[in-house]
Structure formats: structure tokens, C-alpha cells
Specification:
The structure holds 2 protein chains of 2 kinds. Chain A is an alpha+beta fold. Helix content of chain A is about 25%, strand content about 35%. Chain A has 10 helices and 20 strands. In chain A, helix 5 runs parallel beside helix 6. Chain B has one domain: Orthogonal Bundle (MetI-like fold), CATH 1.10.3720.10. The chains are: A alpha+beta, B mainly alpha. At the A-B interface, helix 2, strand 7 and helix 3 of A face helix 7 and helix 8 of B.
């Protein structure tokens, strides 16, 4: 468990940072907010690279920083792995020496983590960097560099992994190449990850918990699924509101060109996906792609017609539109509806409806959105 | 080449060439470590007296060399505050000796090394050192494994430049160490003596040619080393 409370001023005419949040002992906690909202400062303070005016950082019972008690462990003794936006590989060392730099300096023995974490060969295989071991950093592509940086941080056997916009310097294709590695990393490394980003597709793909930041303050913190449902946050203003739904690949119907995704309470047909049957996938369903019907629709091309219950009707800003919160079993969906539709169908909480979702709507999740 | 040079020069002239190389090499050896330390202080630390130290280091570039030689004579002369104990306790006499010539040369070329190395330190990305910190490297560890290797091209280039400049140091050497053939008569001193001797024009021209070629060769070498190492470091 990571416990963070920080206060820091940048200057007379700039905002001050005042945040407090916790991150669980495993999984990815994403700090999300616009550029310059203080996310990277928070990460630097946790790493010990920046000393905040006031602050307390504890990790699993160890105090890393406590300005009131004059405790400030230097970064080299905090044992936190950090992945920066630019890979920061040591240019004079080969990839393998870079990878082992932190590992060689980690104290021997099991360390603070009973789980020693993945070994050298395992990390190299996981990140697919075996062929790069003998090369110099300058001969690597941006994506390769970032993979090596990730491996280097991981091999230092850190208690916590800090990632400061690790994909921000990469182009769309390289980002798409690296995201699955990050998702796999979460499953392999049994350590908490604090991940800073301002890209929504990274939030959708990686976030277990989400801390929303703006101008040095925390707007909200909760599970990613719960925050995606909130229509009052800038998250829904910056793009269409929607829900994140944890799914399992149930079957591939190759002839029909479809994949069935099971979630708690139902299943979707979506265009054929690459993942193996049984693997986990999280999809984002935009509120604008969900339609409601009070009677089971017929003769429709739409693949997904799910029985649901209206749990809540909320008005969106402006008053002409609203959001209908629907429940399919225990899973919540959000439907964007006009005021007129709500009135015409006389939608109200508790009513049984059908949620209508086109299969192709899930295609948008493949294209990186920023 | 050395063999042909030896044939072309008189034994005295050849001795001056060898002595110059010896003095310049010794001066670089003596000044390299302190120069690295001071360059690091100036590049990375903020402390009271930093500006003063910076000015002191650069003094030999602006003060007449004769004045530097005179200052050394005052300090390191057998009755000077440093020279007296050296002479009385250890039997070391720097004035009028090859070691003295090397010391005078070292002081004169010191700012050249410091400037080059300091630039080198300033060019090392602090982000790399921060990354090393998060990977568990303490201050000395970081300096030896990251900062110093990345500064190596600048250190080598600075050392070669100082060596080249050291071959030609005149004013400070002649003031502090005098002009003794075989002891302190380096190339420029030998050229000076030749021009003062009737009929020495040919010898002066030969020695000047050697001096010129050595300087050019070394400057090109410094440039080449810097470029090669930057390439190897991936920049």
C-alpha cells in the first residue's frame, strides 16, 4: 500500500500542488490529468528526485519521506523503479549492461518483497528484447529503448514501479506495440505501479485505479470502471462518456468474423479480435453508441440486444441531452439519450429495457485516441 | 620518423625536443586529477567562493606568463613558503629543474584542461544521473559509472590540448626554471637561444618547424579522439 500526501508551491504566479491519495499493493494506479497539472511532480517527489515543501510518503510501512519528522530517504535507497518519458538508457553501456545496472545494485536476498519478481531471462523474454542485448542504445528504435528501460527498472527488484508518461514520446504504431507489454507486466510483476499519463487510451487499457488531477488538486479517485461511469467529471467532457467493461474472450466465430466477449451479466459480439480464447480484455463502450428500446427490437442488423434495467436518468450539461444508466446483470452501461427520447419512451428508474449496441462500435477502441 | 629526426637534428636540439615531450607529459599527469576535481566543482556545485575559484583557475590565461613564473618562484623558491619545507625536509628543489619546468607548464595549461572537462560535465544529461539514482547508485558509484565515462572524451581532448600547449610554454618556464640545456631548455627555449646565437637561424627554423608540426598533429589528434568517443557514446 502506497500512501501519499504532498504540498508544494512552484512560484508566486503558479498553482500549488496539494494532493493525498493511496494506491493498493498491486495493480496499476493511473494519475490522469492535462499537461502541467502536477502529475510528474508527484512522481518525482515519490521517487525522491524532488523535495516537496510538505509531504509524507509511506510504502508498505516504510516511511520514504516525512518532512515533519525530517525523514527524506535519498532516491538510491528508496528502491523504486522509474521509467521516464525519454528512456534515459546509459549511452555508453550495452543493452545487457543497462538491464543489469539496477539489478547489480539491489541488495542480495529476498529484499522487502517476499516475491523476488521475474528474473533476467524472464524479463528479457517478456519484453522481447533478447536480440537487442549486445547493442548500444543509440542503435535502438524508440519503442525498443522504452522496453529496455522498462526491463531495467523491473530488474532492480523495486517495491513500486513509477512510470512517467512512458509512451508519450512514441508515435501511434510504437504506442500500440508497447501497450500490450505494459498490460502483461501488470500480471507478471506483483508490485504496485503508479502510472502518469494524459492519454485516455492508456487509461482504458491499463488503469485499475484512477486518480483524476487538475491544477494541482485531485478531482476524484476510484476504480477506473467507477470513474468512467461518472458524468460530472472532465473525463466525460474531454471525450464521450462511457463505461469500461472487463471481459474474457469466450470464443472466436471466424466464419462470421466475430468474437464473443463475456462480461458479468452478459456477452457482446464484436469484430474478430487477435487475443487467445480465455485471455482478459477490457473494452470501452461509449454512451453515444448505446441505444435503448422499450420493446425487443426485430429485424435489426445490430448484433447485440441485451436485456437491461434503467437504474438512473441524469441530465447532461445544457439540458437537451441526458445519460441513462443501465444495468445488465451487475454490469453498468451508460446510454446517451436526447431529452426527447427520454420523454417519448417515458424512461424511468426500474424500467426493463433493451440495450442495443452495434458490433462495429467497438472498432474505435483499436485506433489510439489522445 | 624519430630516427630521421634524430639524424636531422644536433644532439642538443634533439634533447630539447625530448625534454619538451617529457615536461609536457609530466605537466598533464600532475594537473589532470586536480583539474577534473575542480571542473566538477565548478560545473556541479554552488558554494561560496565559487566565482573566486573560477577566476583563480583562469588567471594563467590572462596574467603574463612571466608573472606566473615569478609567483611560482616566490612560492616554490628554496626560501619560499612551500619551496623551503620541500627543500629542507624532502630535499626536493623545483627551481631550475625539469620538475620545476613541468610544474610551471602545468599551472599554465591548467585552465585549458579545466575548461574542457567542465564543458564535458555540463554536457552530461542530469536525467541519466537521476535514472542511476533510482536504480540504486550512490554518489560515488554514479560519478564513476555514469558521469565520468560520459565525460571521458572531454577529459582526453582537454589532456591532449594541454599537452600540445605544454610543449610550447615559454615565459613561466624560463622565469621559474631558467634556460638550462638538458634540464629545463624545452623547444621554445631552445628556439629562443638559437635566435640569440650568431648563425643559429637554421637551427631555429628546424626547431620551429618541429614545434609547429607537433602542435598541429596533437590538435588534430584531440579533435579525432573527441569525435570517435562521441560516436562510441552514441551522441
Amino acid at each position: 500500500m502506497l500512501d501519499v500526501a504532498l504540498r508544494h508551491g512552484f512560484g508566486p504566479d503558479q498553482f500549488s500542488l496539494d494532493v493525498a491519495f493511496t494506491a493498493p499493493h498491486a495493480g496499476i494506479t493511473v494519475l490522469f490529468g492535462p499537461s502541467g497539472c502536477g502529475k510528474s511532480t508527484i512522481l518525482a517527489a515519490i521517487a525522491g528526485l524532488l523535495r516537496p515543501r510538505h509531504g509524507k510518503v509511506t510504502l508498505g510501512g516504510t516511511t520514504l519521506l516525512d518532512t515533519a519528522m525530517h525523514i527524506d530517504l535519498p532516491p538510491e535507497r528508496r528502491r523504486l523503479g522509474m521509467v521516464f518519458q525519454e528512456a534515459r538508457l546509459f549511452p555508453h553501456l550495452r543493452v545487457e549492461t543497462n538491464l543489469r545496472y539496477g539489478a547489480r545494485r539491489a541488495p542480495p536476498g529476498p529484499g522487502p518483497n517476499p516475491d523476488p519478481g521475474p528474473g533476467f531471462d524472464e524479463v528479457v523474454a517478456l519484453l522481447g528484447i533478447g536480440p537487442l542485448l549486445g547493442r548500444r542504445p543509440r542503435n535502438l528504435s524508440g519503442g525498443e529503448r522504452q522496453r529496455v528501460a522498462l526491463g531495467r527498472a523491473l530488474l532492480a527488484r523495486p517495491r513500486l514501479l513509477l512510470m512517467d508518461e512512458p509512451l508519450a514520446a512514441l508515435d501511434g504504431a510504437r504506442r500500440a506495440e508497447l501497450l500490450p507489454f505494459l498490460a502483461r507486466l501488470r500480471d507478471v510483476a506483483a508490485i504496485p505501479v503508479l502510472y502518469v499519463t494524459h492519454a485516455l487510451d492508456e487509461v482504458d487499457a491499463l488503469a485499475d485505479r484512477l486518480v483524476l488531477l487538475d491544477a494541482g488538486r485531485i478531482l476524484a479517485q476510484d476504480t477506473a470502471e467507477a470513474l468512467a461511469l461518472r458524468t460530472d467529471l472532465p473525463l466525460s467532457a474531454r471525450r464521450d462518456a462511457g463505461t469500461l467493461i472487463a471481459c474474457r474472450i469466450a470464443e472466436h466465430a471466424c466464419r462470421r468474423g466475430l468474437t464473443r466477449l463475456e462480461f458479468e451479466g452478459g456477452a457482446f459480439w464484436v469484430p474478430l479480435r487477435a487475443e487467445a480464447v480465455g485471455s482478459r480484455a477490457r473494452i470501452r463502450l461509449r454512451a453515444r453508441d448505446v441505444a435503448g428500446a422499450t420493446q425487443p427490437p426485430q429485424g435489426l442488423s445490430t448484433q447485440n440486444i441485451l436485456p437491461a434495467t434503467v437504474t438512473h436518468i441524469a441530465e447532461a450539461a445544457g439540458g437537451q441531452e441526458g445519460f441513462g444508466a443501465l444495468a445488465v446483470g451487475p454490469t453498468a452501461l451508460l446510454a446517451r439519450l436526447t431529452r426527447d427520447s427520454v420523454d417519448r419512451l417515458a424512461l424511468e428508474p426500474g424500467q426493463a429495457v433493451w440495450a442495443v449496441i452495434k458490433a462495429v462500435t467497438f472498432d474505435h477502441a483499436r485506433a489510439p485516441e489522445t | 620518423m624519430a630516427f630521421r629526426l634524430q639524424q636531422a637534428l644536433s644532439p642538443d636540439e634533439w634533447q630539447a625536443v625530448r625534454l619538451s615531450l617529457d615536461v609536457a607529459a609530466r605537466s598533464v599527469l600532475v594537473s589532470l586529477l586536480p583539474a577534473i576535481a575542480i571542473a566538477w566543482l565548478l560545473a556541479r556545485r554552488r558554494f561560496p567562493g565559487r566565482t573566486l575559484l573560477d577566476a583563480l583557475v583562469h588567471l594563467p590565461l590572462v596574467v603574463p606568463p612571466v608573472v606566473i613564473g615569478w609567483g611560482l618562484l616566490m612560492l616554490f623558491g628554496v626560501r619560499g613558503p612551500i619551496g623551503a619545507p620541500l627543500h629542507d625536509w624532502f630535499g626536493i628543489r623545483l627551481v631550475f629543474s625539469t620538475s620545476g619546468a613541468a610544474l610551471a607548464t602545468a599551472v599554465m595549461s591548467f585552465p585549458l584542461i579545466v575548461r574542457a572537462v567542465r564543458l564535458g560535465f555540463e554536457h552530461v544529461d542530469p536525467g541519466l544521473e537521476a535514472a542511476a539514482r533510482t536504480l540504486g547508485a550512490g554518489p560515488v558509484d554514479r560519478f564513476l559509472t555514469i558521469t565520468l565515462p560520459l565525460t571521458a572524451p572531454a577529459i582526453l581532448a582537454g589532456a591532449v590540448t594541454a599537452f600540445a600547449a605544454g610543449l610550447g610554454e615559454f615565459g613561466a618556464v624560463i622565469t621559474f626554471a631558467s634556460n638550462i640545456p638538458g634540464e629545463t631548455q624545452t623547444l621554445p627555449l631552445a628556439i629562443y637561444s638559437a635566435t640569440q646565437t650568431p648563425g643559429g637561424e637554421a637551427a631555429a627554423a628546424r626547431l620551429a618547424g618541429i614545434s609547429f608540426s607537433l602542435a598541429i598533429t596533437l590538435l588534430l589528434l584531440a579533435e579525432w579522439i573527441a569525435r570517435r568517443m562521441h560516436l562510441a557514446l552514441g551522441r
